[in-house]
Specification:
This protein is α/β, with parallel strands linked by helices and 416 residues long. The chain is built from 16 helices and 15 strands. InterPro entries: Gfo/Idh/MocA-like_OxRdtase_C, Gfo/Idh/MocA-like_OxRdtase_N, Gfo/Idh/MocA_Oxidoreductases, NAD(P)-bd_dom_sf.
């Protein structure tokens, strides 16, 4: 396989520290040759790590994509509402594209991105990294083997974690649906995609319920200030007190969102008036903190999905119920239990699950994407499938808002 080259658009946490890490770990296979990032400090730091010359560092994707084609592919890791334009520009310019999820919060843009990839015969791979996890890969394998007969029912839960909800969806970049995208799309399009994959069928219809119930002004303790460092009287009994929340995790990835300089002095300074220092009850967040979705697939498989912020762990648990048996799985524990209805036997599978990067899925996805580009083969996250799972998420949000059952085909074709 020839060495694959890439440009990076958006050098934040995912683009700057996760997916691009593959180039540093596998320099003979993959190289980043140019970057577009509006934040000067991040841009310069990224360029230094990847030995990118100054003339190939740009403030905007428009500048970078305005140049002649510089590489084989483009990694687009901007904010949710900034994926569409650079993706279309990159496809037209001749780049294969790896696009961070979600593709877009706009139905028409999602559909067009899939159509443009087909029109220009380019790879458009969406970062549905869970398909690459040892856990979900094994579940797919067991279903294809007929281990539990015909699949009939899926019960799936995403435990967001109280701390992750506070960081990303109350204080952070994905707190406001109008600025980014609805929770069910931004956080849970992974899960829509996984259920679609496991059901092995297109979605027919969905219903959904959910609310923003807890992280609101009316639940603020008496006397709680707008910022934690403004003398909050509840600091000792609050799980979300920002200085403790971040200073006790200086080696973790969350603190990198607060400041690129992660020593205590810079973190405290950033928390004084920065977004991550706000009281979780005094933010401009609008996304839900719990939601359920019921799904009917065209092959008569039914599924129920639950997303909740009110858990200790950030985890995914699933049950697959078939005509001959049942599977229970815990992704983060790496355990799968298979119960056979005829014999009554219980089989337990213990998987190796790396602690970082969605249990190792991030690097597995990058490995696959590089080979898709370098060898011209298909991968697990083709744009056509990703369009379907994104539309499922948007239809679920429509169902939540309207209180109606939404037919997916009708939803996809409406105002197309």
């Amino acid at each position: 396989m020839k060495k694959v080259t890439s440009i990076v658009i958006g050098a934040g946490l995912r683009g700057g520290h996760v997916y691009s890490q593959y180039a540093l770990d596998h320099p003979d296979e993959f190289q980043v040759v140019a970057v577009a990032e509006p934040d000067k400090e991040r841009r310069e730091s990224f360029a230094k790590r990847h030995n990118i010359p100054e003339e190939l560092c740009f403030e905007s994707y428009e500048e970078l994509l305005g140049k002649e084609k510089l590489a084989d592919c483009a990694m687009i890791c901007t904010m949710d509402r900034m994926h569409y334009e650079p993706t279309i520009m990159a496809l037209k310019k001749g780049y294969h594209v790896l696009c961070e999820k979600p593709m877009s919060p706009d139905k028409k843009e999602i559909i067009e991105m899939g159509e443009m990839a087909k029109k220009y015969d380019r790879i458009l791979s969406v970062c549905h990294v869970l398909r690459y996890s040892p856990f979900f890969s094994k579940l797919k394998e067991l279903l294809e083997e007929g281990k539990i007969g015909r699949l009939m029912t899926i019960q799936h839960m995403e435990e967001v974690g109280y701390w992750h909800q506070a960081h990303s969806f109350v204080r952070g970049n994905w707190r406001n649906a109008e600025e980014s995208s609805p929770m069910i799309l931004q956080k849970c399009c992974h899960d829509m995609d996984i259920m679609l994959w496991l059901a092995d069928s297109k979605c027919e219809s969905l219903s959904s319920f959910g609310e923003l119930s807890y992280f609101t002004e009316e639940n603020a303790p008496e006397g709680a200030p707008a910022y934690c460092l403004d003398g909050c009287p509840h600091r000792d009994e609050c799980a979300f007190y920002a200085p403790r929340f971040y200073l006790e995790n200086l080696d973790g990835y969350l603190v990198r969102a607060v400041t690129d300089q992660t020593d205590p002095e810079h973190v405290l300074e950033a928390l004084k008036k920065g977004p991550y220092g706000r009281c979780v009850f005094h933010c401009d967040n609008t996304v839900v903190d719990h939601q359920s979705v019921d799904i009917k697939f065209e092959n008569q498989v039914t599924a129920s999905f639950l997303m909740t912020a009110f858990t200790d762990q950030c985890a995914r648990r699933i049950r697959l119920m078939g005509t001959k048996g049942e599977i229970k799985g815990d992704m983060d524990a790496g355990t799968i239990e298979i119960r056979d209805f005829v014999s009554g036997n219980l089989e337990t599978i213990e998987l190796h699950t790396p602690a970082n990067g969605h249990n190792g899925s991030d690097m597995s996805m990058m490995h696959d994407f590089v080979r898709m580009v370098g060898e011209g083969r298909k991968g697990k996250t083709d744009a056509a499938v990703s369009v379907e799972s994104h539309l499922m998420a948007l239809a679920a949000e429509e169902a939540r808002i309207t209180g109606q059952v939404v037919n997916l085909r009708g939803f996809a074709n409406e105002n197309k």
